[in-house]
Amino acid sequence: MAKAVNIDIPGGSVSGHCDDKFAAIAAEFARNFTERNEVGASVCVKLDGETVVDLWGGHFTRERDPATPWNEDTVTIVYSSTKGATALCAHILADRGELSLDAPVADYWPEFACNGKEKTTVRMMLDHSVGVPVLREKLPDGSVYDWDYMCDRLAGEEAFWTPGERHGYHAMTFGWTVGELVRRVSGKSLGTFFQDEIAKPLGLEFWIGTPEAVEPRISPMIPFRPEKGAPLSPLVQLAFADDKSIPALFLFNGGGFQPNSREAHAAEIGAANGITNGRGLAGMYAPLACGGSLGGTNIVSPEAIARMGQVSMSTHLDETLRVPTRFALGFMKSMDNRGQGIFANMILGERAFGHVGAGGSIGFADPECGLSFGYTMNRMGDGILLNDRGQSLVDAAYKGLGYRSNDGGVWIA
């Protein structure tokens, strides 16, 4: 039984509800504000589709003004956590037999099948092996807000490697490579399909292409600023060493994306501009933790969930992130790089799948235990995947379920 929570934190409070079984989540959430420099955030946990944790707190802006708290209905951009929503759209179409995962992309998007991409399959688009993680030529400012322009550029881009033979995180391009397939097969824009087939049926406040009426509720993101002399990630090291490398093009050829602008919120960027909160992320993954249906709403079949959770691509050196990574079809799997001394971790259960967003947001489902989870925040943290704020909440969730260890790289009971 979830009980009301009200915890004082510096200049504000944490509010919401939490089941006694998961009291450690509330404690860690409050600790994020007192010890880990959290500004504003939300976390939601569902078990077998029922909400057991729903907390929010802190401040709407970096100034930590008590007059502008992060409220129950505050939302923010969740960056790459959006990829989970985009991938789910594709899986819905595949589950209905409208999109074949093993079909050539040319069957749906003939213009894409050129310049070394002729044998690309839909599966390769989803698991980041298609070979167009970035674009070589300069993107004009504002171009990332133009769906047709970005799809045309990607269709004509020469592959960086033979599709399927290597793996590199498609940090921004995933939104169009997969999103355009959704648009061509369904006849709806990605954001419209997501609303019609997922967000509205599940009652979620979650948008890819956010209405202007929501704008006053969107907490602005606070960029991460590394401390002077802090070690650089392998991605950043290569980006500065080689301005033609994939990491450099990823970091410095962003097409003028400004995450706190109305233009960025209004566009449909399926890799990076979803707007929601912890409740929206946990709610999207809830049916995926419960066999595909929730409250009479069917999203996908159990067979589709099995496909979503299988590792499709794993590498010791991601061509973009420059660290070991593990991916399912459109989703991230548990990644444990602690032994390598790099801050690139996301430690979940073995059957869990989901996605992190830049700065540390995360949403995932774990069908093994019926768990769905969402965490969002406005102050971006260090690291490529989760930082200690988000991972501490994930760890507390698994411990609340009786899991005992993640020493092996995944949580085990």
Structure description:
The protein has helices at 23-35, 82-95, 122-126, 147-156, 174-186, 190-202, 234-241, 246-252, 262-266, 278-285, 302-309, 388-400; strands at residues 2-9, 12-19, 40-47, 50-58, 76-77, 207-208, 274-276, 293-294, 297-298, 313-315, 325-327, 353-356, 362-366, 371-377. It has 413 residues and is of the alpha+beta class. The protein has one domain (2-85, 192-400): Beta-lactamase (3-Layer(aba) Sandwich), CATH 3.40.710. The strands form 4 sheets. The chain has a 7-stranded antiparallel β-sheet with strand order 1-2-4-3-14-13-12, sandwiched between helices. It has a 3-stranded antiparallel β-sheet with strand order 5-7-6. Strands 8-9 form a two-stranded antiparallel sheet. The longest helix has 14 residues, at 82-95. The chain is globular, with a radius of gyration of 20 Å.
Contiguous helical run count? 12
Gyration radius (Cα, Å) is: 20 Å
Distance between the termini: 23 Å
Q: Which secondary-structure class do the elements indicate? A: alpha+beta
Biggest beta sheet summary:
7 strands, antiparallel
**What would you call the shape?**
globular
Low-confidence stretches: none
Total number of distinct structural domains: 1
* CATH structural architecture: 3-Layer(aba) Sandwich
Q: If you consult CATH, what is the topology?
A: Beta-lactamase
Question: What is the averaged pLDDT score?
Answer: 96
**How many beta strands in the DSSP annotation?**
14
- Fraction of residues in β-strands: 15-25%
Overall CATH class = Alpha Beta
Q: Which series of helices and strands comes N to C?
A: EEHEEEHHHHHEHHHEHEEHEEEEEH
The CATH homologous superfamily name equals DD-peptidase/beta-lactamase superfamily
Main sheet: strand order: 1-2-4-3-14-13-12
